[in-house]
Design brief:
This protein is α+β, with helices and mostly antiparallel strands. Helices cover 29% and strands 27% of the residues.
Length: 277
Amino acid sequence: MERGYVHQDVIDIGALTQFAKSRAEIRDVVHEFFLFDTIDSTQRVAMEMAQSGMPGGVAILAEAQEAGRGQRGHVWFSPPGGNLYLSLFLTPCGSVIETPLFMMATLVSLWTAIREVTALDVAIKWPNDLQIDGKKVAGVLVGTRTAGRMTPALMIGIGLNVNVVDFPESLEQTATSIAKALGHPIDRNLFLAAFFSAFCRYYADVESHRIHGLHQTFKTACEALGQRISLTAYDRTYEGVAEDIAKNGDLILRMPDGHTRLIPSDQAASVRFFDRH
């Protein structure tokens, strides 16, 4: 195969590390990879690394999580058996981290990798999820740490349902996986290579303020645009048509009275569609 990986059910951290070292665009961003069999939360490890003052450029992966968390503290279903639980601890250049842009870069990278490896019709659900056939397949968390550090730290948490096909009854109607959509499992190593290749390119674009391509791809992938939606922000519920995505990741919502409102991606929750086309 193109990236030298043999299909298998385990993450080959050695092969992933060697692949990253062979690609300048990856090793400039991520140069250490850690894999845990079981952990409470990869994001907790990334946070502890940031708090310790150590330099960034680290990827933390786990085969299972015991306390995985999604947006706003929601439990993330994290069983063993073939999903991806990944956190990145990075130190972008500059004194201010524009977290919505790194959220955008991560979502577009996941979208790109899924399409490249599987050709599935996947969509970004603003502000921080990916969906297949209207069901969640991935979620992303982005956080920062500045206290006690010379340079700000960025922590990106990713949960992707890859090869698990059995979900709890409470998630059956809202969650899916790549294997469930395809009808067969995929090689997670191949997917990781595709993801890191895309992510490190977009990460560099954000750092250098070249975001036009990222922004346009995000809008292409975003299923909300043109749709009538409701969402919660600032403890209020808003309804309207998702008209556009601003370059900083804010949603431009056309209200029923004709006015527009900017909804920051880090303030939005409970995005629901009234209809789908």
